[in-house]
Amino acid sequence: MRLTWDDVDFDNNTIKIDKASQYLSNKGIFEKDPKNKTSKRGIEIPEFVMSIL
After folding, report:
1. Do 22 and 30 contact (CB within 8 A), yes or no?
2. Which pLDDT score is estimated for 37?
3. In whole angstroms, what is the distance from residue 29 CA to residue 22 CA?
4. Which residues of 24-48 are buried (b: 16+ CB within 10 A; e: fewer)?
5. What contacts 5, CB < 8 A, 6 or more positions away?
6. How many CB atoms lie within 10 A of CB 11?
7. pLDDT tens digits for range 5-33
8. Whole-model pTM over 0.85
9. DSSP readout, the chain?
10. From CA 9, how far away is CA 53, in angstroms rounded?
């Protein structure tokens, strides 16, 4: 999965996870929806990490 700036919420110190990466030998690496609904989530990030971003 590749994170983009749209996935980063600086106001709430979270990163949104809503896509997954997959590799198939005939297709290469591509993005897709996660396997299930609970895979889509927000992860809390410490303030000092967010300040680095």
Report:
1. yes
2. 85
3. 6
4. eeeeeeeeeeeeeeeeeeeeebeee
5. none
6. 6
7. 999 999 999 999 988 899 999 999 999 98
8. no
9. ----GGGEETTTTEEEE--EEEEETTTEEEEE--SSGGG-EEEE--HHHHHH-
10. 11
